[in-house]
Amino acid sequence: MTPTLISHLELEEVKKRIMLSKYTTEEYRKLYKELPQKVKNIFWEDDVSDRIEKIVERHELSDLKERKLIRLVAHIYLGLLPPKDIRRTVSEEIDANPDDAEKITNDINRLIVFPTKHLLKEIYKGDEEDGSSDGKEKKRSGDAYREAIE
After folding, report:
1. Residue ranges per domain, the chain?
2. 119: burial class by Cβ within 10 Å (0-12, 13-18, 19+)?
3. pTM for this predicted structure
4. What's the sign of the alpha-carbon dihedral 145, 43, 23, 60?
5. Tens of pLDDT, residues 61-104
6. Own/partner pairs for 125-132, CB < 8 Å, 24+ apart?
7. Please, what is the end-to-end C-alpha distance for the chain in angstroms?
């Protein structure tokens, strides 16, 4: 029996499918159980699904990219993806060019993060939003959960 060879593109597609899947089902369950009840409720709201669907339609995301977006949103609510890291993660995981990554990130912040900002603060209360690691607080202007108005 000869081994099946897959093309470079197929290999890249397989790699993309597993990038966000760094956690086991059991680990996801444990994280979910530890969430405040109000955050748990978000996972079952039709409104969140509708907002995700708006992002998918607006940016014409493929089925694979839609699944990645859904997982990315779940990671935000599970405390695995701080809002400050969304843009980088969109660029890497959804494989978007810088301009598209920025637009998708703005929609995620506007439609997903901002409406639940008060709940996310509970989850990420230990994280510094400015990304500094030296313990010094930096003065920030604006709101990290809102998109910039041009």
Report:
1. 30-123
2. middle
3. 0.68
4. negative
5. 999 999 999 999 999 999 889 988 999 999 888 888 899 999 99
6. 127/82, 127/84, 129/82, 129/83, 129/84, 130/84, 131/84
7. 60
